[in-house]
Amino acid sequence: xxxxxxxxxxxxxxxxxxxVNSPARAxxxxxxxxxxxxxxxxxxxxxxxxxxxxxxxxxxGPLILGHAHPEIVAAVNEAAAEGTxxxxxxxIEVKMAQLVTxxxxxxxxxxxxxxxxEATMSAIRLARGHTGRxxxxxxxxxxxxxxxxxxxxxxxxxxxMGAPSSPGVTPGTAADSITVPFNDxxxxxxxVVENRDEIAAVIVEPIAGNMGVIPPVPGFLQGLRDVTTEMxxxxxxxxxxxxxxxxxxxxxxxxxxxxxxxxxxxIIGGGxxxxxxxxxxxxxxxxxxxxxxxxxxGTLSGNPLAMTAGYETLKRLQEPGVYDVLxxxxxxxxxxxxENLKALGLKYQTxxxxxxxxxxxxxxxxxxxxxxxxxxxxxxARYFREMLNRGIYxxxxxxEAAFVSLAHSDADIDATIKANYEAxxxxxx
Length: 429
Ligand code: KE4
Hints:
The chain is of the alpha/beta class. The chain has helices spanning about 5-15, 70-80, 90-105, 115-130, 155-160, 170-175, 185-195, 220-230, 250-255, 280-285, 305-315, 320-345, 370-375, 375-390, 410-429, and strands at about 35-40, 45, 50-55, 110-115, 135-140, 175-180, 200-205, 235-240, 260-265, 275-280, 350-355, 355-360, 390-395, 400-405.
């Protein structure tokens, strides 16, 4: 059927690789063409053909307040009228840094950047510069953005597209990245001993969000904390998804384990391009122009527009009861889905932490990359399409999270549960 989205996609493919500016948006794995979105408001988005959807992507996490929050839009408009960027320090950057150091337990100092990738790339360079060591430990199926060191057995779009290890990453770079299974503490301890005094950092998503949502098994995070402390290794929590999401202070606050460095993104920008990395003052004091002068820079880092969107978002997340409301909404959705699965005699799995969750099309508990990878992706693709046809917009991949926002009403949750029942039933006939 010829639609406006189709016409736009045809034009896009002539001038943009794959017609998308990020491969996660391509509908390849689920079939068909991506929808072109023209408007978002609260929990809903509208596509180029005027169809409206309840949105559980939320720009992949940033829009925890919902689309086009009136107070955020007003604040950004006001800031824009004063100038969008100066390439010079501004007061809003100080206020933002003070707020982040107040909210996130591990962060004593913080540097703003423009994406989660910049944050994670900078954090491992800082860990290497600070320790004088070269290697990092990362986890199979985790996604830390597209810096070379991470593109070995990665998650998210790399996994979805069937290319977890990317061409273009040199053997030398790959040799310095040690990849171990998520939730496997023994494998970490073995890697650390085998590479004694060579490992600069362990970087982990404290709750994996890029192979679908996979929580840490009890003791995993504290075990990482213990072994990295013992061996003088920098522990980095990549909280680009979980930061300000599973609690105001992120997964480190939720689980009570404090890393040395934390990387942030998504919510911190309130929908505008912002990333950040921060942590112990002793380590952050080696970032240029300080200490060992570990290089890091950015033309638009901390620009007043993005800082305003992020700051106003974080201030609203500090209001009492916000995370209880998110928990209630997300719990209702998960409970409804589990009741549907039971009613239909299906044994598929759901994982949820706070307002992020994934329905896995597998009958075994999903606590590892291998378990996630065993999912029936064809069945997911059918389910995705059935939900889309019922007005529910999910991430076009089994290896992503669904994000519940404060804008999702009880009626939205109920409608989604109803659509889930009908979609599951259509998939199993
Ligand atoms: P960005 O460079 O996309 O802002 O952030 C990279 C990143 C780093 N760390 C974690 C834990 C992340 O989840 C991400 C980016 N997440 C993906 C979706 N899972 C963004 C979507 C996309 O790639 O288009």
